[in-house]
């Protein structure tokens, strides 16, 4: 068990030092694609939002000790509908950026809300 945990830690440390990360899944789409898909099929926004929650949870789990500890990804001051509105607004204003950039901006907003 300890050997497996040590191997996992080494693997994560190696990944953290990589210069380039390939993001996969629905969140790898551009904001322009997100805008078009949600306009065509509004229910698809749930898929994007689920990806965003998973992405932010993964970022929180990989954060080094002392960074973002106790960060609430679903605070009462920014409930899920407001987070979805934030992502829609970001992508409407920045169609040339990636949806992941919108999620990163949301994560930073949540960090600011925790202060």
Give an overview in words.
There is one protein chain. The chain is mainly α. It is built from five helices and no strands. The termini are far apart. Keywords: Signal. Residues 1-18 form the signal peptide. This is Rap1a immunity protein domain-containing protein.
Q: Which SSEs are present, and which pair or pack?
A:
Layout: H1 2-16, H2 31-40, H3 44-62, H4 80-93, H5 99-114
Helix pairs in contact: 2-4, 4-5
In short:
By secondary structure, the protein is mostly helical. It is 64% helix and 0% strand.
Helix content: 55-70%
Distance between the termini: 37 Å
Mean pLDDT across the residues is 85
Along the chain, the helix and strand elements come as HHHHH
The total of beta strands comes to 0
Quaternary state reads single chain
Beta-strand percentage range: under 5%
Shape call: globular
Number of helices: 5
- The gyration radius over C-alpha positions equals 16 Å
Give the low-pLDDT segments: 1-18
Largest sheet: none
Instruction: Domain count, please report it.
Output: 1
Look at the helices and sheets and give the structural class.
mainly alpha
Keywords: Signal
Signal peptide: 1-18
Protein name: Rap1a immunity protein domain-containing protein
Please name the defining characteristics of this protein.
mainly alpha, 115 residues, disordered N terminus
């Amino acid at each position: 068990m300890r050997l497996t945990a040590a191997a996992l830690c080494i693997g994560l440390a190696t990944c953290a030092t990589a210069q380039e990360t390939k993001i996969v899944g629905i969140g790898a789409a551009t904001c322009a694609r997100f805008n078009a898909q949600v306009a065509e099929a509004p229910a698809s926004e749930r898929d994007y939002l689920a990806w965003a929650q998973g992405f932010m949870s993964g970022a929180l789990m990989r954060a080094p000790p002392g960074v973002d500890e106790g960060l609430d990804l679903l605070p009462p001051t920014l409930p899920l509908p407001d987070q979805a509105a934030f992502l829609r607004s970001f992508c409407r204003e920045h169609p040339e950026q990636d949806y992941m950039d919108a999620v990163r901006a949301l994560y930073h907003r949540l960090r600011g809300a925790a202060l």
